[in-house]
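Below is a typical protein record.
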Amino acid sequence: MLTIDPGGELLQEKHKERNAITSVAEKEIDLLSRHIDILKTVRDHGPIGIIRLSQVTNQPQHVIRYSLRTLEHDGVIKPSAQGAVITDKVHETLGTLETTLSDMISTMTELKKKLK
């Protein structure tokens, strides 16, 4: 389970030690996870505003704004008077994400084998 400190930074579980070699990748995966959670919430509850997104996802509003900007830049959501809504590009993007994550899993599996 991931937690967020008051400043909006994602924190790992206390029992998991961070490593300088992997910390950047871990932070990026945490960020990707948040973007996906927010995209799915917009898809399932849209149109939805920042305050409601914050309540539903338990994320601070400034974190929500950052993810919304990123998702809007990618063209998968757009603003409306009632709040964020998905675009027609969302299904293509989710498919691409699924493929990319599968590729990443394969890469991580190969990297893990190299450790032995």
About this structure: The mean pLDDT is 87.
